[in-house]
Amino acid sequence: MTSNSLSGSRVIFALATGAGRGAIAIMRASGPGSSEILTALCGSLPAPRRASLRALKHGGDILDHAVALWFPGPNSYTGEDGFELHLHAGPAIISRVADALLDLGARPAEPGEFTRRAVQKGRLDLLQAEAIADLVEAETESQRKQALKQADGALSRLYDSWAHRLRLVLAHQEALIDFPDEDLPEEIEHSLIREFTALHNEMNAHLQDNRGELMRQGLTVVIAGSPNVGKSSLLNALSGQDAAIVTHRAGTTRDAIAVDWVLNGVRLRLIDTAGLRETEDEIEAEGIRRALFHVKQADVVLHLLAPDESAACLSAEEIPVRTKIDIAPAPEGMLGISTLTGDGLTELRRTLTDRVAALTSGSAAPPLTRARHRAGIQEAVIHLERAQNASWPELRGEELRLSMQALGRLTGRVDIESLLDAIFGQFCIGK
Fold first, then answer.
1. 252 labelled ligand-binding
2. What is the CA radius of gyration of the chain?
3. Which of these three, 99, 125, 151, is where a domain ends?
4. Within a domain: 175
5. 29 known member of a binding site
6. Which UniProt keywords are given for this protein, alphabetically ordered (predicted)?
7. Of 17, 205, 223, 275, whose CB is crowded by the most CB atoms within 10 A?
8. Distance of alpha carbon 193 from alpha carbon 195, whole angstroms
9. 273 annotated as a binding-site residue
10. Is residue 28 marked as binding?
């Protein structure tokens, strides 16, 4: 995707609705010259932002009876003139309208091009644009809510406020550099040091908050334990699928089996692992090695225990669960389940819900949601640390400036051209 192709000099168009059979298909277009193209199709320009039923004509033919909407810039999604055609969703109609748009000088949009133009026109910043992509991809309620908050600018406002405070600090620092002989109050330097130290601490706390990444990517819940303790049965019971083979033979599960599951609006990946035991079987040993790897990487570990096993060796982060309570009851204070009778499963879901809530809820501050955000804040923090340790005022000022630029690149306020292709290339065509 080249810069020339995305210059905004031509009208672009794309189908905004998904492929497949449906009643309505929405064709959207944007760019200078949109009014001429829409007039050519409709005979006259509809009133702005009002649905108008029109007979679309081109080359002497009626293409469709469709609803047309005209969105004059700058008050449109992209900030440019644009329009939408709500067509009957027959493939022949969609194809014919697309051919007409090509004949009239428009071209097909590239992935993310509508949203990219919105960024270039100042209608959105990069964080909001990424949130639009997350909103389109949202599969759970928690992902939807998080994407909506970010699209509304919650994260942008936080980063902009940090950048604004850095600008004030930098202004004081420049005053100390430019007027060394003016006998400025010592309080000015003490104040700016306090302020960028406070910023450093706030950004570090932000980096420790991984709620956003967990909700966007989903949490990993690993079911671990000895062979034949009921791990596969629990995976099937929680997910409602016969995903794992269940037999009385120990060691049936040799490799990890993963199932996606949504619990109270949060996406989880349940992983059933090989039974943990000493073995000389090469294949089973590899399965156990992989099981231990998944345990280390997990956000939550459900460690299942047979009636004759103790929880004494488990870590504080693992949730001990006594299985087969239809044979022997669980000790006082320990979760117990029976996948045969269903006893205890409701309490297990409640405990798992509480643990997930503890991992994904926290302060009211908006969490970062992507690796790009984390890398940008880490860069800003590094420059603040260098500013704290700088021996020369000029060096401190330069580090403060670099920290502010790192924040600006997150929102797209500065130096964004190198980021655009990578970000918007992940979008769907109609966005």
1. yes
2. 29
3. 125
4. yes
5. no
6. Cytoplasm, GTP-binding, Hydrolase, Magnesium, Metal-binding, Nucleotide-binding, Potassium, tRNA processing
7. 223
8. 5
9. yes
10. yes
162 and 225 co-located in one domain: no
- CATH number assigned to the domain comprising residue 351: 3.40.50.300
229 has binding-site annotation: yes
- Is 251 among the annotated ligand-binding positions? yes
Q: Are residues 116 and 149 in the same domain?
A: no
Say if residue 314 is in the same domain as residue 403.
Answer: no
- Whether 343 and 407 map to the same domain: the answer is no
Query: Is 299 assigned to a binding site?
Result: no
> Is 389 marked as a binding-site residue?
no
CB 246 within 8 A of CB 252: yes
Domain limits for position 57: 4-125
Residue 228 annotated as part of some ligand binding site: yes
Output b/e per residue, 30-60; b: 16+ Cβ within 10 A.
Answer: bbebbeebbebbbeebbeeeeeeebebebee
First CA to last CA distance, the chain: 15
Asked if residue 145 belongs to a known ligand binding site, the reply is no
Beta-strand runs (E) in 105-235 = 107-108, 219-225
Annotation-wise, does 107 bind a ligand?
Answer: no
Shared domain check, 105 and 53: yes
In the numeric block, the tokens 């045969």 are attached to 340
The answer to the question of whether 123 is labelled as a binding residue is: yes
- Cα–Cα distance measured from residue 418 to residue 104, given in angstroms and rounded to the nearest whole number: 32
Q: What is the pLDDT along the chain (431 residues), one digit of tens a residue?
A: 334 344 447 999 999 987 777 899 999 999 999 999 999 999 999 999 999 999 999 999 999 999 999 999 999 999 999 999 999 999 999 999 999 999 999 999 998 899 999 999 999 999 999 999 888 888 888 889 888 989 998 999 999 999 888 888 888 777 777 665 555 566 667 777 888 889 999 999 999 888 888 888 888 898 888 888 888 888 888 887 765 544 454 455 556 788 888 888 888 888 888 767 666 666 766 777 777 788 888 889 999 988 888 877 788 788 999 998 988 888 888 899 988 899 999 999 999 999 888 888 766 678 888 889 999 999 999 999 998 888 888 888 889 889 989 998 898 876 445 445 544 555 566 66
249 marked as binding residue = yes
